[in-house]
């Protein structure tokens, strides 16, 4: 920038020649320079204001356009406008082992209100209450006449309800498409399926998420759009499940039980063909979890076959006998002295109803369900070896059964596994497990000595795990269990043509806050069938059964769980494709002679 001198020499000389004061020239130049500076500052300020004005114009234009879009678009609930992935509406089906639908999707609608658009809020509230009796008219009127812009009325309605709401004709009541999870078989296999609910929600879509059972366990798979045409196939058989639940419900009522459970498992593949827990619920209308009370089994949501962790009693005796045989300490014919007295420290070990069986074989220890017999076998086995064997059967960890509730079925074992615990655990007291644990343990006996993990997924062919006992030991254990049915405490459990083998167990029921009830038991019958070629394991457990038979009140498994299991096997064996077979009987001693 060129600066003009304040005292230019030519003008100064010329002014002096005319007798003028040269300082006037300097003042004029200073004034002109200040005016030039003001002009430049004003120009810069005007440019900045122009840029700022353009910026505000663009900002207000964007806001105005956005407001116009919102005013002309469909209303959205605030939570639904949170940034994130688009709401996925499709969820894969769940089918049984034969491809029959257990869970699928149904297109339906939600209904919501935009109060500013409503013509007659009071009349609309009256008609909505008539359609949905659970709504409160006063609350609706208050919401419709307030400053609210959006209000959910119902997030899921039937086609009939949609038509009734449509007939109201108020422009402020609108519908949104909605996909819901449908369980066409109602209560059937409810504890396996679990149920589904809504996650993120908008007026035009809703995210369906699993809340329990396999729906929650396999939620990622079911929600993956890539699996929309590939259903999740379970090991359940729908027809067998229906028969099991029907018979089990009847047995629970006849035996006056508080609850019941049944697990039917393929002993070679680990597939759970049926799993039932009663009382049950409808996953289409899943009840809320209880908020009061100390006994979780009071709720129909309680899954008894994985969450019902109890001392299961004498059904554990076969594990003690099998381990003793496996270690070479005894065989099924070895004589054991079961006579008393028997004490571990200051604790006496007695028999049911004070019986004394004397000297009997190992097989008869199982047949008569002798506590002292299995206790003496356990002392020969020892605490550490007993723990190792039960651990190999999966008795110390939650079962790997693929529903979320299974992780909560943690077995309870003693903190100090001493001599007393060794004896009591040998006959099923002091160690608490679930019926699903028991099914896996009996499957090892049924399949020839291999541990198999219970699974709810369809499998092809045997899925044998590590060997936990020899085939010879498993065969001897099978024969002992068969003898329990033919000669022992489970005589009501025989089913002609199918050769049932099993063991009863009756244990005092623990109180939620500690201790045991005096008059309440958990009755269990653990079976494998057909005994001549075991393929399936069935565990039936009744919670607090009690019947009157022959003039006496009966609670033991032989009177309660066993008849129910027998009825179950008779009903489901043909459905499983098992043909009845008559066991060969001993030949008659007849000699042919001539006349």
Keywords, separated by commas or semicolons:
5-stranded mixed β-sheet, 595 residues, hydrolase, alpha+beta, 35% helix, 5-stranded antiparallel β-sheet, 18 strands
Shape: elongated
Main sheet properties: 5 strands, mixed
Helix-strand category: alpha+beta
Radius of gyration: 40 Å
Give the integer mean of the pLDDT values: 89
Low-confidence residue ranges: 78-85, 591-595
Give the fraction of residues assigned to helices: 25-40%
Count of DSSP E strands? Answer: 18
Overview of this structure, please?
InterPro entries: Beta-lactam/transpept, Beta-lactam/transpept-like, PBP_dimer, PBP_dimer_sf, PCN-bd_Tpept. Keywords: Carboxypeptidase, Hydrolase, Membrane, Protease, Transmembrane, Transmembrane helix. Pfam families: PBP_dimer, Transpeptidase. This is Penicillin-binding protein 2. By secondary structure, the chain is of the alpha+beta class. It contains 18 helices and 18 strands. Strands 1, 2, 3, 4 and 7 form a five-stranded mixed sheet that branches. The chain has a five-stranded antiparallel sheet with strand order 9-8-16-15-14, with helices on both faces. A two-stranded antiparallel sheet has the order 5-6. The longest helix has 50 residues. The radius of gyration is 40 Å and the shape is elongated. The N and C termini lie far apart (154 Å). The C terminus is likely disordered.
């Amino acid at each position: 920038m060129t600066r003009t001198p304040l005292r230019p020499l030519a003008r100064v000389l010329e002014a002096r020649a005319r007798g003028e004061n040269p300082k006037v020239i300097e003042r004029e130049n200073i004034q002109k320079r200040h005016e030039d500076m003001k002009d430049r500052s004003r120009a810069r300020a005007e440019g900045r204001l122009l840029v700022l004005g353009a910026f505000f114009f663009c900002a207000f234009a964007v806001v105005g356009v956005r407001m116009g879009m919102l005013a002309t678009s469909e209303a959205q609930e605030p939570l639904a406008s949170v940034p994130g992935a688009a709401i996925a509406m499709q969820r894969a089906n769940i089918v049984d082992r034969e491809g029959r639908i257990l869970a699928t999707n149904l297109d339906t609608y939600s209904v919501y209100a935009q109060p500013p658009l409503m013509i007659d809020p009071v009349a609309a509230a009256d008609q909505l209450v008539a359609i949905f009796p659970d709504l409160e008219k006063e609350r609706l009127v208050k919401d419709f006449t307030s400053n609210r812009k959006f209000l959910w009325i119902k997030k899921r309605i039937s086609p009939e309800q949609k038509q009734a709401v449509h007939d109201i004709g108020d422009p402020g009541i609108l519908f949104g498409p909605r996909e819901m999870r449908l369980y066409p078989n109602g209560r059937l296999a409810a504890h396996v399926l679990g149920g589904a609910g809504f996650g993120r929600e908008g007026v035009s879509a809703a995210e369906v998420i699993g809340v329990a059972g396999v729906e929650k366990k396999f939620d990622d798979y079911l929600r993956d759009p890539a699996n929309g045409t590939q259903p999740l196939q379970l090991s359940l058989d729908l027809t067998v499940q229906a028969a099991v639940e029907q018979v089990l419900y009847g047995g629970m009522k006849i035996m006056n039980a508080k609850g019941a459970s049944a697990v039917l498992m393929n002993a070679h593949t680990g597939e759970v063909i049926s799993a039932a827990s009663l009382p049950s619920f409808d996953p289409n209308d899943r009840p809320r979890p209880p908020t009061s009370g100390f006994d979780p089994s009071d709720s129909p949501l309680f899954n008894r076959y994985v969450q019902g962790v109890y001392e299961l009693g004498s059904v554990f005796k076969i594990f003690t006998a099998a381990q003793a045989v496996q270690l070479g300490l005894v065989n099924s014919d070895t004589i054991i002295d079961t006579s008393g007295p028997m004490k571990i420290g200051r604790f006496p070990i007695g028999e049911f109803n004070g019986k004394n069986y004397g000297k009997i074989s190992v097989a008869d220890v199982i047949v008569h369900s002798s506590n002292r017999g299995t206790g003496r076998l356990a002392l020969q086995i020892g605490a550490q070896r007993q723990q190792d064997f039960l651990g190999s059967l999966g008795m110390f960890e939650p079962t790997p059964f693929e529903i979320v509730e299974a992780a909560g079925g943690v077995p309870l074992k003693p903190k100090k596994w001493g001599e007393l615990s060794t004896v009591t655990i040998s006959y099923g007291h002091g160690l608490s497990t679930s019926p699903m644990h028991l099914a896996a343990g009996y499957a090892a006996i049924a399949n020839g000595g291999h541990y198999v993990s219970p699974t709810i997924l369809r499998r092809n062919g045997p899925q044998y795990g590590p060997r936990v006992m020899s085939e010879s030991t498993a065969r001897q254990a099978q024969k002992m269990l068969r003898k329990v049915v033919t000669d022992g405490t489970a005589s009501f459990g025989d089913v002609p043509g199918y050769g049932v083998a099993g063991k009863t167990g009756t244990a005092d029921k623990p109180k939620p806050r500690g201790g045991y009830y005096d008059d309440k038991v958990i009755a269990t019958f653990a079976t494998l069938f057909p005994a001549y070629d075991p393929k399936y394991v069935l565990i039936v457990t009744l919670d607090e059964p009690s019947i009157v038979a022959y003039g006496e009140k009966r609670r033991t498994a032989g009177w309660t769980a066993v008849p129910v299991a027998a009825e179950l096997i008779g009903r489901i064996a043909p459905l499983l494709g098992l043909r009845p077979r008559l066991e060969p009987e001993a030949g008659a001693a007849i000699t042919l002679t001539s006349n």
